[in-house]
Design a protein that fits this description.
Layout lengths: L8 E12 L6 H15 L9 E4 L7 H9 L5 E3 L7 H15 L4 E8 L16 H4 L7 H15 L3 H15 L15 H5 L3 E3 L2 E2 L8 E10 H7 L4 E10 L15 H12 L8 E4 L4 H11 L7 H4 L12 E2 L4 H4 L7 H12 L13 E8 L4 E8 L5
Parallel strand pairs: 2-3, 2-4, 9-10, 9-11
Antiparallel strand pairs: 1-7, 1-8, 4-7, 5-6, 8-12, 11-12
Length: 385
C-alpha cells in the first residue's frame, strides 16, 4: 500500500528572484539569489542545508555545481531531470527523506537566464526519429497535436483555449512580479486573431520566454513551527511517467496527471473539489484544460466548457494559476517550482491584490517533457492536518 508522510513535513521558506529579465546573471546566480531569499524567509542559514535538490537547463551536473557555488556539503543531492516536473518530484523525495530523519533541511532551487542569456527556448532533448522527418517545432508542435486531438475528439473550441490565456492575463494584471503586468488586457478576440504558430495553437496559446529563479525550503513539521508563524504543510504527493516523446502517447488527450493526481489526492485525504487554489504548469493553453480534466476537477472532454465564462479567472469559481502562470507571469524554461512558491504565497496570505480569500488548501501540478512526466503536490495550512 502506498504511503506518504502526510503533514509530517512543511515548506518554511519560498521565494523568487529575477523574474522577467535579469541581464548579467547566469542560471546559478539566479538560483542562488532565490535560495538566499527563501532561507531568510525560513529563518535558516545555508549551513543548515543538508539536502540539495536542483535541476538547471544548462548543466547536466547542476547538483554538483550548485553545492560548490553555495559553499555547502550536503548529505544528499538530487538532480532529477524530468523537465518542469522535476521540482515537484524533488519535494516528494525531500518529504520522505525528512520524515525518515536522513536529512533535516531541504533546499529546492532553480534558475534560468533563458530570455537574456540563452538566445531563446532551451531544450535538453534529442528529437524523436519518428517525428524528426516532419520537422516539428518542438515542444510546441507536440502540444499542438494534443490540442488538435482534443478539438477533434470532444469538440473543444479555440475560444476555450483563449479563455485560458485571458484568465492568466487577468491574474497577471494583479501581480506586480508578472512579466505581463501592466502590459494591457487580453481579449478573446485578441487570441482568436493571433498569429498561428503550430496549428491549432496561436501566439497567445504559448508560454512566455523569460528569466527567473525560484526556491523553497522544507523541514520536519515539529521544527517548522519553531521557525515560522505559518508553515505550509505537505499533505500528499505523487509522480507518474508514461512516455518520453509525444508519438508514444496512447491517447493524446490523457496525460500521466490522471495517475499522479489521483494518487496525490488520495494520499492527502482531500479531493479536487476541496482545493481553494490550483496552480498547474501552463506552458500552453491546452495544458490547463488537460490537467484540470486529468486531476479530476471536471470530466474528460469537459475542460473546454469548464474554463469558459471566466470560471478560472479572478472572481471565478476556481482560482487557477493565480500568479499569471507560464502564459503571463514567467516561464524560464522549467516552471514547476513556481507553482509551489505561488501556492505558498496564497496559503500564507501574502499574494496582495491576487489573494484568494480564506485559502487553506492548494494543489501544485507540474509537467515535464511533452506531456511525459507529471507530478502533483497537495499543500495545506495547519488546520487541514
Amino acid at each position: 500500500m502506498e504511503t506518504f508522510p502526510r503533514g509530517n513535513t512543511a515548506i518554511v521558506g519560498a521565494a523568487t528572484f529575477g523574474m522577467g529579465e535579469a541581464p548579467g546573471y547566469k542560471p546559478l546566480d539566479l538560483a542562488a539569489n532565490a535560495a538566499k531569499l527563501a532561507l531568510a524567509d525560513a529563518n535558516l542559514r545555508l549551513a543548515d542545508v543538508d539536502g540539495l535538490f536542483v535541476c538547471t537547463g544548462d548543466d547536466a551536473l547542476s547538483g554538483l555545481s550548485a553545492a560548490e557555488y553555495l559553499g555547502i556539503r550536503p548529505r544528499f543531492t538530487d538532480n532529477n531531470r524530468t523537465g518542469g516536473s522535476a521540482f515537484v518530484s524533488h519535494a516528494i523525495t525531500a518529504a520522505i527523506m525528512l520524515e525518515a530523519g536522513y536529512i533535516d533541511t531541504a533546499l529546492i532551487l532553480y534558475g534560468s537566464n533563458q530570455r537574456t542569456g540563452a538566445g531563446g527556448l532551451v531544450s535538453m532533448r534529442q528529437a524523436s526519429p519518428y517525428e524528426k522527418a516532419y520537422r516539428p517545432m518542438n515542444p510546441l508542435s507536440s502540444y499542438a497535436l494534443a490540442a488538435a486531438r482534443h478539438i477533434h475528439e470532444y469538440g473543444t473550441r479555440r475560444e476555450s483555449l483563449a479563455e485560458v490565456a485571458v484568465a492568466a492575463r487577468k491574474w497577471a494584471n494583479l501581480n506586480p512580479d508578472a512579466f505581463m503586468y501592466g502590459k494591457g488586457d487580453l481579449s478573446i478576440d485578441d487570441c482568436m486573431n493571433a498569429r498561428v504558430i503550430s496549428d491549432p495553437l496561436v501566439k497567445t496559446d504559448c508560454c512566455l520566454i523569460t528569466d527567473g529563479a525560484a526556491a523553497i525550503v522544507m523541514t520536519r513539521s515539529d521544527r517548522a513551527k519553531d521557525l515560522v508563524k505559518q508553515p505550509v504543510f505537505v499533505l500528499g504527493g505523487a509522480a507518474a511517467v508514461w512516455h518520453s516523446n509525444v508519438d508514444q502517447m496512447q491517447d493524446l488527450t490523457v496525460t500521466p496527471a490522471a495517475e499522479s493526481g489521483q494518487r496525490a489526492f488520495a494520499l492527502s485525504g482531500y479531493k479536487p473539489a476541496d482545493m481553494d487554489v490550483v496552480n498547474v504548469y501552463d506552458a500552453f493553453t491546452i495544458n490547463t484544460i488537460l490537467f484540470l480534466e486529468d486531476l479530476g476537477f471536471c470530466a474528460k472532454g469537459e475542460g473546454g466548457d469548464f474554463v469558459s465564462g471566466g470560471r478560472i479567472a479572478p472572481g471565478g469559481s476556481l482560482a487557477v494559476n493565480t500568479n499569471g502562470g507560464g502564459l503571463s507571469c514567467c516561464h524560464p524554461g522549467m516552471y514547476g517550482l513556481f507553482t509551489i512558491v505561488e501556492n505558498c504565497m496564497q496559503l500564507r496570505s501574502q499574494a496582495g491584490r491576487r489573494q484568494v480569500a480564506n485559502a487553506k488548501l492548494a494543489v501544485s501540478h507540474a509537467n515535464g517533457g511533452t506531456l511525459s512526466s507529471q507530478a502533483t503536490l497537495v499543500m495545506g495550512l495547519e488546520e487541514t492536518l
